[in-house]
Amino acid sequence: MEVEIKLDSTYTETKVIILTADMNEEVRIIAKNLSENIPDIITGIKNGKVEMLEENDLIQVYANGGKVFAVTNKGEYALRKRLYEMEERLNQKQFVRISNSEVINLKKVENFDLNFAGTICVRLSNGTVTYVSRRYVKKIKKLLGL
Q: How does the average pLDDT of the chain come out, rounded?
């Protein structure tokens, strides 16, 4: 992707034009991100209290029993968003889906163990061990350059 910025003092408001040969997923994501006013805050509920969560503090976000939870070093928080909404909301260069029910923060990964047949074991910074489902192994290997 090529990015070009032109400064023109005759414009009173910023204007973004996307030039592309075809409409693909990357273009859809860019257009969506530019058109939405996504709040910078994420709220989680712990012990009946709503707390503000920083995106960089999230270790993993997962669904269990019809609910979605976020894990940080301060504990586990219930979220009022669906997993796919959180996946869309989070920085796509930092967060990656590893199964139908889990998204992890790549900056909080200690290591990936490829010794397991057909899957990948992931050790997170808080000591949690989780696994990449078979469906997502190819995507993760490509992400890791393998």
A: 87
> Which residues does 27 contact at the CB level (< 8 Å), separation at least 6?
18, 20
Range of the domain at 53: 42-144
pLDDT at position 115? 79
> What would the pLDDT profile of 41-60 be if each residue is shown by its tens digit?
789 999 999 999 999 999 99
Residue 116: inside a domain:
yes
Alpha carbon 36 to its chain's center: 17
Q: Is residue 85 part of a domain?
A: yes
> pLDDT per residue over 7-38, tens digit each?
888 888 878 888 888 888 888 888 877 776 65
Contact, 100 vs 139, CB < 8 A? no
Is 24 within a domain? Answer: no
Q: How many domains does the chain have?
A: 1
The answer as to whether 112 is a domain residue is yes
How far apart, in whole angstroms, are the C-alpha atoms of residue 136 and residue 120?
Answer: 9
